[in-house]
């Protein structure tokens, strides 16, 4: 599938730096047809620029929705996020589908989702795939890290899911802000202790899969860096290696891509 244009229908700010954008599907397309956990590579060329700016985003809408919704956190000097925060209803965005993690119902007994910041989007998509399917009995544990409590995205939706599916889904929120008075939050960072609480006691005999998505520093500390400039999974490292998890038990996403990886994507996309 090549790049297609999506028209922005509506947009709203969900907190101080994150915008939700809902796009109309192209033509007479009834549903997006995206796989359950997939990303969209967005492309735009700034005025005066020779090459396009590209950035992958994971929709928070489902494949059966009649629209595509993106959740975009704005970063300082972030060209893609700034462009999307300035996009007005009626304007278009060029996108291309990128398959990510091939999720299948009941493929694993237990999923542990570890997210940081905007890295919640592929986890939210995975959660909806599991919890919206009454035949899927997969147990899911979410560990979601942010700087402050106000940075927690989709909290209302996540809490509603945890309440409705209390026998299947649990959440752990971690904030760097150690001054927070909220006793329901873990303070500091995602540590070995925090991860151990979410993982089964006997990893060798338990069918568990850990998905990790966050900034490169967080990803490296928890699961080890991706390989091949981000194109391959690489070896398991960090805390998960210390806990005894194997390559088959871990899948790494990138919440933000390395400069080398983006340069390579930009070169390839500029020739399409």
UniProtKB/TrEMBL annotation:
Q: Name one GO cellular component term.
A: mitochondrial outer membrane
**Primary enzyme class:** oxidoreductase
Known InterPro entries for this protein?
CBR-like (IPR001834), Cbr1-like_FAD-bd_dom (IPR008333), FAD-bd_FR_type (IPR017927), Flavoprot_Pyr_Nucl_cyt_Rdtase (IPR001709), FNR_nucleotide-bd (IPR039261), OxRdtase_FAD/NAD-bd (IPR001433), Riboflavin_synthase-like_b-brl (IPR017938)
The keyword Flavoprotein appears for this protein: yes
Main location class: mitochondrion
Q: What is its EC number?
A: 1.6.2.2
State the reactions this protein catalyses.
Answer: 2 Fe(III)-[cytochrome b5] + NADH = 2 Fe(II)-[cytochrome b5] + NAD(+) + H(+)
Per its database record, what is this protein's job? May mediate the reduction of outer membrane cytochrome b5.
Q: What is this protein called?
A: NADH-cytochrome b5 reductase
Whose protein is this, by species? Aureobasidium namibiae CBS 147.97
């Amino acid at each position: 599938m090549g790049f297609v244009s999506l028209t922005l229908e509506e947009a709203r700010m969900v907190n101080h730096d994150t915008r939700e954008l809902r796009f109309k599907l192209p033509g007479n397309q009834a549903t997006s047809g995206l796989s359950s956990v997939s990303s969209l590579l967005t492309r735009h060329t700034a005025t005066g620029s020779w090459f396009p700016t590209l950035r992958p985003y994971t929709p928070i809408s489902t494949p059966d929705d009649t629209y595509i919704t993106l959740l975009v956190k704005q970063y300082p000097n972030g060209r893609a996020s700034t462009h999307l925060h300035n996009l007005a209803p009626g304007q278009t965005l060029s996108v291309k589908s990128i398959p990510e993690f091939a999720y299948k119902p009941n493929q694993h007994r237990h999923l542990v989702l570890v997210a940081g910041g905007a890295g919640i989007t592929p986890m939210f998509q995975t959660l909806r795939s599991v919890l919206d399917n009454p035949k899927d009995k997969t147990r899911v544990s979410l560990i979601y890290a942010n700087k402050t409590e106000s940075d927690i995205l989709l909290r209302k939706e996540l809490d509603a899911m945890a309440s409705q599916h209390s026998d299947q889904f649990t959440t752990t929120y971690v904030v760097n802000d150690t001054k927070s008075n909220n006793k329901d939050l873990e303070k500091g960072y995602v540590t070995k202790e925090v991860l151990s609480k979410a993982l089964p006691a006997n990893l060798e005999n338990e069918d568990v899969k850990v998905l990790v998505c966050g900034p490169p520093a967080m990803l490296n500390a928890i699961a080890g860096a991706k390989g091949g400039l981000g194109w391959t999974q690489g070896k398991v490292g960090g805390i998960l290696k210390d806990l005894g998890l194997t390559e088959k038990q871990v899948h790494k996403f990138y919440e933000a891509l390395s400069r080398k990886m983006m340069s390579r994507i930009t070169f390839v996309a500029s020739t399409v």
